[in-house]
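User: Here's a structure from my thesis project, written as structure tokens. My advisor, Dr. K., wants to see whether a designed sequence matches the one we expressed. Can you design one independently, without my sequence as a hint?
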């Protein structure tokens, strides 16, 4: 009797341990399955490339204070699933940006914020050539099915009325031709304000970038909605 009782108790303990292991395994499988379902249902991040000059790159700022990083944080704080790539190069003209286009725009990009032209204007370069360069850049982005937000910048007034009249309208003209979104003045609310600028008086400081991010936000929302609509139409939604 004692031997049978001992064997039965041992068998009971084995069964109990096996039951506990099975329950733990089942719980782990259910948890992993739930996590997988959440991941499967979550949309892929919208990838935006910020393609520009020093105003995009974050001249004399930490990477965390540059326009792309601040914009990404602001969008994520509003629940947006985004990744913003900093493809800004200080000193770039429209011509220099066009030359590096093929390696600067990575695969898998959904949208682009194009901020170029300031250095063309500062150097007094041909507005007609700047227009052709931007036209080509936008066309190449559209050919890749990348939605575009074009940010404008006015020409320095010291070049005279003829130069200004040739330079300033090109951003709105190109946006209309290509059907892209337009933010007319990238430095709106920041330009000529010492408290929002670096000592050079041209580039925004971290506070200035925060103002840019706040003001351009509505246009970026439109950009994201265009990407979402394209994804839905493609069944990726």
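Assistant: Designed independently from the structure alone:
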């Amino acid at each position: 009797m004692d031997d049978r009782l001992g064997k039965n108790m041992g068998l009971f303990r084995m069964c109990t341990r096996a039951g506990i292991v099975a329950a733990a395994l089942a719980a782990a499988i259910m948890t992993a399955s739930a996590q997988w379902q959440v991941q499967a249902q979550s949309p892929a991040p919208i990838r935006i490339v910020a393609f520009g000059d020093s105003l995009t790159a974050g001249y004399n700022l930490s990477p965390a204070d540059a326009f792309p990083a601040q914009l990404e944080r602001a969008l994520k704080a509003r629940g947006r699933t985004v990744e913003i790539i900093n493809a800004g190069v200080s000193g770039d003209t429209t011509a220099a940006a066009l030359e590096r286009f093929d390696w600067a725009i990575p695969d898998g990009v959904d949208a682009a914020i194009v901020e170029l032209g300031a250095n063309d204007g500062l150097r007094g370069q041909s507005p007609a050539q700047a227009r052709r360069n931007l036209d080509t850049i936008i066309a190449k982005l559209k050919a890749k099915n990348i939605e575009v937000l074009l940010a404008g910048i006015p020409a320095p007034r010291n070049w005279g009325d003829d130069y200004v009249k040739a330079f300033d309208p090109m951003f709105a003209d190109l946006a209309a031709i290509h059907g892209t979104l337009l933010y007319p003045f990238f430095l709106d609310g920041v330009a000529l304000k010492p408290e929002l600028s670096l000592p050079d008086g041209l580039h925004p400081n971290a506070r200035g970038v925060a103002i840019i991010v706040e003001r351009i936000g509505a246009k970026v929302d439109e950009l994201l909605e265009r990407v979402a609509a394209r994804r839905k139409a493609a069944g990726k939604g």
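When you compare it with your expressed construct, this may help: The first helix runs from residue 2 to 41.
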